[in-house]
Amino acid sequence: MLTGLSWLALEVKYLERARSFYEETLSMTVTDEREDELVFAAGETDLVCRRPDGVPRGGLHTHYAFSIPEAEYDDWWDRLSEEYDLEEMQFGPARSLYCYDPDGNCVELGQRDVDGPGIDGIFEVVLEVADLDRSEAFYTELGFETVDVGDDRKRVRMAGPMALELWEPHLGIADARGGVHVDLGFETSEPTAALEAISDDVRQVDSVDDERVVVRDPDGHALTFTI
């Protein structure tokens, strides 16, 4: 049903501070700039940094993961470790490093089969939810599939256009937290079909037309389905 992650939006206090981190430290390209927003290219997905001047707001303390080519990992570690206190995790053959941006978002750079150079996609987003079973059922209706459940039943990992992790409030790897009021955009050929699948469970519907539907999930995360 959902074929791709179009954007992830984060809330930031100061745009120039966000620009310094994402453009200079992480070598990402600014593709659009407005009075209250910066948009960076992360492969085929946009990373939006937005001041809290309206709704939907971007996500707060959001943990998410960028894809980087496997061969670049050591260079990224050497470069970022000069300034940041990094943490590292191994997932099978793949390694990931973790650091924080200026607004407290936990940024993961993980080895993936991507071309690069540099950051080439977002492969994971973590949402904080109040009721894990309710949120798992909600995203299942959108085509996500559960692939892992935490031993403590505080988290669920789902596969879809990207890996979606649903966390009840707790601290994860690198003391990361799931994001609140996160704004996600998804590509789909039928936005209204996505709405029909979850219409009984959304918190609210913000807008509907044939090419774009905007809703709030049960925890208030903003979801846009767009062609």
How are the SSEs ordered, and which strands pair?
Elements: E1 4-11, H1 15-25, E2 30-34, E3 37-42, E4 45-50, E5 63-69, H2 73-81, E6 87-91, E7 94-100, E8 106-112, E9 122-128, H3 132-141, E10 145-149, E11 155-159, E12 163-167, E13 183-187, H4 191-198, E14 204-209, E15 212-216, E16 222-226
Parallel strand pairs: 1-4, 5-8, 9-12, 13-16
Antiparallel strand pairs: 1-13, 2-3, 3-4, 5-9, 6-7, 7-8, 10-11, 11-12, 14-15, 15-16
- Please outline the major beta sheet: 8 strands, mixed
**Radius of gyration from the CA trace?**
17 Å
Strand portion: 35-45%
CATH level 4 superfamily: 2,3-Dihydroxybiphenyl 1,2-Dioxygenase, domain 1
- Estimate nothing, just give the exact number of structural domains: 1
Continuous helix count: 4
Distance between the termini: 11 Å
**CATH hierarchy: architecture:** Roll
Structural class assignment: alpha+beta
What overall form do the CA principal axes indicate? globular
User: Order of strands in the sheet with the most strands?
Assistant: 2-3-4-1-13-16-15-14
Q: Point out poorly predicted stretches.
A: none
How would you describe the overall organization of this protein?
This protein has 227 residues and is α+β, with helices and mostly antiparallel strands. The protein has one domain (4-226): Roll (2,3-Dihydroxybiphenyl 1,2-Dioxygenase, domain 1). Helix content is 17%, strand content 41%. It has four helices and 16 strands. It has helices at 15-25, 73-81, 132-141, 191-198, and strands at 4-11, 30-34, 37-42, 45-50, 63-69, 87-91, 94-100, 106-112, 122-128, 145-149, 155-159, 163-167, 183-187, 204-209, 212-216, 222-226. The chain has an eight-stranded mixed β-sheet with strand order 2-3-4-1-13-16-15-14, with helices on one face. A hairpin with a 5-residue loop joins strand 15 (212-216) and strand 16 (222-226). It is globular. The protein starts with a strand and ends with a strand. The model has no long low-confidence stretch (mean pLDDT 97).
